[in-house]
Specification:
alpha/beta; 11 helices
C-alpha cells in the first residue's frame, strides 16, 4: 500500500481544472465557487454563463484562472449553428450527449471542445470525435448524485465510453459538474471516483490537468490550428 501511494503522489502535483461549473443567477455566487475550487486544490475553473454573472478579476486568488464555458444544445440543425456562432469567441464549447442524432451533429461540427457523457457511443462516433479533436467528457457528479439502478447505468455508460476513448486515443476530461460550491471534490477524490468505472489514476489526472490545459490553449486568439500559431 505504501509503495502504491508513493507512486501516485507525484501525479497530484499538477495544476487541476474543472471546465463545467454551473453558476446560479446570483452575481455574488462566483466568489464562493472560486473559493471552494481553490480550497479543493484547483488552479482554475471554466464557468457556464460567466458573461452574465460578472466578476472582479482582481478578487481571484493568486495563480487562479477563470474561463468562460458555453453548453450548446438543441436540435441537430440548431446545434450546428450554435457551435459556429461561438467558435471564435474563446468560450469552451460543450455539448451533452443526450441522443445519437445530437451526438453525431455535434461531432461533425468543428470547434466543439467537449462531448459530455454521451449516452450512446460507438466506433463511428468515436472516429468522428478523433477526426475533429473533440474531447470526451466524464461527469463524476452523476455518480455522486445518483443511487441504485441509476448509478449502475451511469457507471456502465462511462465504462463503455472509456473503452472507446482508449481505442481511438481520444482526449478525456473529468468534471464534477458542480451546481454549488459543495459539489466540488478534490482531484484525488475525483480520481478515486473515476476508478469506479475503470479510469486509471494517470488518465484521471491528465483528464483534470494536461487535457483541460490543452483545450484552454486552443481557445487562445493566437491559436489557428495544431502546429500553427500567431507570433
Amino acid at each position: 500500500m505504501k509503495a502504491l501511494l508513493s507512486q501516485t503522489m507525484p501525479l497530484f502535483n499538477a495544476k487541476f481544472f474543472d471546465l463545467m461549473v454551473h453558476l446560479p443567477d446570483d452575481k455574488g455566487s462566483l466568489a464562493q465557487f472560486v473559493s471552494a475550487a481553490d480550497e479543493f486544490g484547483y488552479s482554475g475553473i471554466a464557468a457556464l454563463d460567466l458573461k452574465y454573472n460578472g466578476t472582479d478579476m482582481d478578487q481571484l486568488p493568486s495563480g487562479f484562472s477563470l474561463f468562460s464555458a458555453v453548453e450548446v444544445s438543441g436540435k441537430p440543425s440548431r446545434l450546428r449553428d450554435e457551435i459556429k456562432k461561438y467558435k471564435d469567441t474563446g468560450d469552451i464549447l460543450i455539448t451533452r450527449g443526450r441522443d445519437e442524432e445530437v451526438i453525431r451533429a455535434a461531432l461533425e461540427t468543428q470547434r466543439l471542445d467537449i462531448l459530455l457523457q454521451p449516452v450512446k457511443f460507438n466506433n463511428v462516433l468515436s472516429k468522428l470525435a478523433s477526426d475533429n479533436s473533440i474531447a470526451l467528457g466524464f461527469n463524476i457528479g452523476s455518480i455522486i448524485h445518483t443511487r441504485g439502478d441509476d448509478r449502475i447505468m451511469e457507471l456502465r455508460t462511462m465504462r463503455t465510453n472509456l473503452k472507446y476513448a482508449r481505442k481511438y486515443e481520444l482526449q478525456m476530461v473529468l468534471t464534477c459538474e458542480p451546481y454549488s460550491p459543495y459539489d466540488f471534490r478534490s482531484p484525488r477524490e475525483a480520481a478515486a471516483l473515476a476508478g469506479l468505472f475503470g479510469m486509471r489514476p494517470k488518465e484521471a489526472v491528465d483528464a483534470m490537468s494536461s487535457v483541460p490545459l490543452d483545450i484552454i490553449r486552443k481557445k487562445s486568439p493566437e491559436y489557428i490550428q495544431e502546429g500553427i500559431e500567431i507570433i
